[in-house]
C-alpha cells in the first residue's frame, strides 16, 4: 500500500464516519448555535439529541425550571441562547408564571415546535401584528393564492381600540397565512 492509498483510505473513512454521524443526528453535538439553526435537518437532529441525552428526566417525572432546561441545552451547545427556552416556557406556562417548574415532556413538546418552525412562526407573528394594526401584510401575490386585496378588509370604522381588545378575525389571519404558505410552498 502506497502513501497515497493510505491517505485515500483515510479520506474515505473520514467521510463515511461524518455522513454516518449526520444520518444518526450526532453531527450537531457541541456545535455552535448558528450551525444547529442552519438547516431543518440540523434542528431536527438537535431535538433528537436533546431527547436522547435527557429522556431519563422525562421518565422520572422531575420538574425543572426554564434556566435548568437552558443549562441542559448549553451542555450540548455552549452558546445556546435564552430566547428559544423562554419561548418554550411561554407556551407551557402563563407569562406571569414563567419561573415555575415544567415537566420534561411539556418543555420538549413546546421547545421542538417553536425551535423547528422558528422562521415560520416569526413570519406569522408579523402577519398577525400587521392585521392587528389594520395594515395589509406585505406579501407577493402568487397566481394560485388568494390576493390580499380579495381578503375581507379590516373595517375602517372599527377602532384600533376594538382591534387591540378583540385581536384579528381568525378567517382573515388564516387566509393571510395560506397566502404566505403558497408563496413559500410551505405545507
UniProtKB/TrEMBL annotation:
Primary location: cytoplasm
Keyword Membrane: no
CC terms in the record's Gene Ontology section: centriolar satellite; microtubule
Domain of life where this protein originates: Eukaryota
Keywords: Cytoplasm, Cytoskeleton, Microtubule, Phosphoprotein
Subcellular location field: Cytoplasm, Cytoskeleton, Microtubule organizing center, Centrosome, Centriolar satellite
Family under the similarity heading: Belongs to the CSTPP1 family.
UniProt function note: Regulator of the tubulin polyglutamylase complex (TPGC) that controls cytoskeletal organization, nuclear shape, and cilium disassembly by balancing microtubule and actin assembly. Regulates the assembly and stability of the TPGC and thereby modulates polyglutamylation of the microtubule, which antagonizes MAP4 binding.
Name the record gives this protein: Centriolar satellite-associated tubulin polyglutamylase complex regulator 1
Phylogenetic classification of the source organism: Eukaryota, Metazoa, Chordata, Craniata, Vertebrata
Amino acid at each position: 500500500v502506497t502513501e497515497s492509498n493510505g491517505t485515500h483510505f483515510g479520506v474515505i473513512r473520514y467521510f463515511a464516519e461524518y455522513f454516518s454521524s449526520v444520518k444518526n443526528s450526532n453531527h450537531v453535538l457541541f456545535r455552535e448555535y448558528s450551525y444547529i439553526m442552519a438547516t431543518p435537518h440540523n434542528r431536527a437532529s438537535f431535538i433528537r439529541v436533546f431527547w436522547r441525552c435527557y429522556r431519563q428526566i422525562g421518565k422520572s417525572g422531575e420538574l425543572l425550571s426554564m434556566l435548568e432546561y437552558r443549562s441542559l441545552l448549553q451542555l450540548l451547545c455552549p452558546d445556546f441562547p435564552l430566547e428559544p427556552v423562554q419561548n418554550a416556557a411561554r407556551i407551557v406556562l402563563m407569562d406571569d408564571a414563567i419561573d415555575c417548574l415544567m415537566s420534561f415532556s411539556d418543555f420538549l413538546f413546546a421547545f421542538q415546535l417553536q425551535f423547528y418552525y422558528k422562521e415560520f412562526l416569526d413570519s406569522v407573528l408579523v402577519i398577525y401584528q400587521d392585521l392587528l394594526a389594520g395594515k395589509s401584510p406585505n406579501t407577493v401575490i402568487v397566481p394560485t393564492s388568494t390576493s390580499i386585496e380579495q381578503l375581507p378588509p379590516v373595517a375602517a370604522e372599527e377602532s384600533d381600540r376594538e382591534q387591540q381588545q378583540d385581536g384579528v378575525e381568525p378567517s382573515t389571519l388564516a387566509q393571510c397565512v395560506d397566502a404566505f404558505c403558497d408563496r413559500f410552498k410551505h405545507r
